[in-house]
Amino acid sequence: MSHLLQKPVQTELSTGVTLVHNVTTQQSPLEYVGFKVIDLAPGATYTESLEKTECCIVAVTGKINVTEGSESFKHLGTRDNVFEKVPTDSVYVSNNKTFTVEGETNARVALCYSPSDKQLPTVLIPAAEVGVEHRGILSNKRMVHNILPDSDPRANSLLVVEVFTESGNWSSYPPHKHDQDNLPDESFLEETYYHEMNPPQGFVFQRVYTDDRSIDETMAVENGDVVIVPAGYHPVGVPDGYESYYLNVMAGPTRIWKFHNDPDHEWILSRQP
């Protein structure tokens, strides 16, 4: 199995709290991005102190309550299944703060991390404020929920988006990369992909490759898997009959998304619907 593909685990952290994924800078080739998925039973709580790290807490499914200091956000979460395709609620918490997430119902929560040394206010990112964007034509159609885009100043490093790709379509396509600190042409951003499929027995293919092929991995990705993108191009192909969801976390030295398309495949952008 590729070292860039992480399968879900089921580690009980405490009563009603299950760790599903834990991508850290110590256990992966990433320096700027960390990522966890936890499942919460009703009434179960998860508490974490961030130190020199910021976190975006995403209510992937189910309902949760989030508390940080005097801030308390109740009844967060808008869907029981990501393929309801409606935006969800999130909370941003800055470095050197402690937060608690409580399951109001059975819930799946994504915790998205990046290094931070400038403390910012804890803020709710309600579903109503999440921008919805439709991209692509022909067999390259997808819908994007911009939870923390680079135009949003409420984070130091983190970029967080959700992407829904239609059956038989390609996403993160034409292949693009953002692994050079070469602004204004390209920014350096590491990335993780948390995947789900509909129906859940499905799979997608994701390739991660660099120009010199020092990285060249093609992975069959199943429901609940995480793909780690330290560098390179990273397209996703969705087989006929299945829909794809993924949650992207990006971070790097500069909080801006400037990508570079693979010149061999950029020509597809000139096609007409």
TrEMBL record:
<dbReference type="InterPro" id="IPR011051">
    <property type="entry name" value="RmlC_Cupin_sf"/>
</dbReference>
<dbReference type="InterPro" id="IPR021120">
    <property type="entry name" value="KduI/IolB_isomerase"/>
</dbReference>
<dbReference type="InterPro" id="IPR024203">
    <property type="entry name" value="Deoxy-glucuronate_isom_IolB"/>
</dbReference>
<dbReference type="GO" id="GO:0019310">
    <property type="term" value="P:inositol catabolic process"/>
</dbReference>
<dbReference type="GO" id="GO:0102482">
    <property type="term" value="F:5-deoxy-D-glucuronate isomerase activity"/>
</dbReference>
<comment type="similarity">
    <text>Belongs to the isomerase IolB family.</text>
</comment>
<dbReference type="InterPro" id="IPR014710">
    <property type="entry name" value="RmlC-like_jellyroll"/>
</dbReference>
<dbReference type="Pfam" id="PF04962">
    <property type="entry name" value="KduI"/>
</dbReference>
<dbReference type="InterPro" id="IPR023770">
    <property type="entry name" value="IolB_Bacilli"/>
</dbReference>
<comment type="function">
    <text>Involved in the isomerization of 5-deoxy-glucuronate (5DG) to 5-dehydro-2-deoxy-D-gluconate (DKG or 2-deoxy-5-keto-D-gluconate).</text>
</comment>
<keyword id="KW-0413">Isomerase</keyword>
<comment type="pathway">
    <text>Polyol metabolism; myo-inositol degradation into acetyl-CoA; acetyl-CoA from myo-inositol: step 4/7.</text>
</comment>
<protein>
    <recommendedName>
        <fullName>5-deoxy-glucuronate isomerase</fullName>
        <ecNumber>5.3.1.30</ecNumber>
    </recommendedName>
</protein>
<dbReference type="GO" id="GO:0008880">
    <property type="term" value="F:glucuronate isomerase activity"/>
</dbReference>
